[in-house]
Amino acid sequence: MRHLLIIFSLCILFTSCSKEKDININYLKGQWYVSPTKGVVEDSWMSYTFVNDTLCTIRVSHAVGGTDTSYNRTYKLSVNNDLITLYNEQKRYTEQYKIVKLTKDKMSWINGSPNDGNSDKELYKSTD
Question: How far apart are CA 90 and CA 61, in angstroms?
Fold first, then answer.
């Protein structure tokens, strides 16, 4: 019984350590580009720029027509920093994602509300 308790404790310890390595919230600030969908030729790109602890700008650029659109958002992180929720200027919910990975150059999101029209995202940090 004692061995089982030790093994269980070690599993919890290693699981929590690996999660901390996968999500380092200190890397959130900066500009993140959404990776294009594999096998799909896209005529636009999208980025999220996290300015401070509450402000984010979403930018969508369309190659056809040459239009650029920016959206200002505020965001909130969950207590354990693995859920991000964005709100528009009227403080209305726009999107929510479970952060499954956040390193210095890559971030992975799973859509937290599948019926809101948003999708999972792979993001890569700008090197500029």
Answer: 23
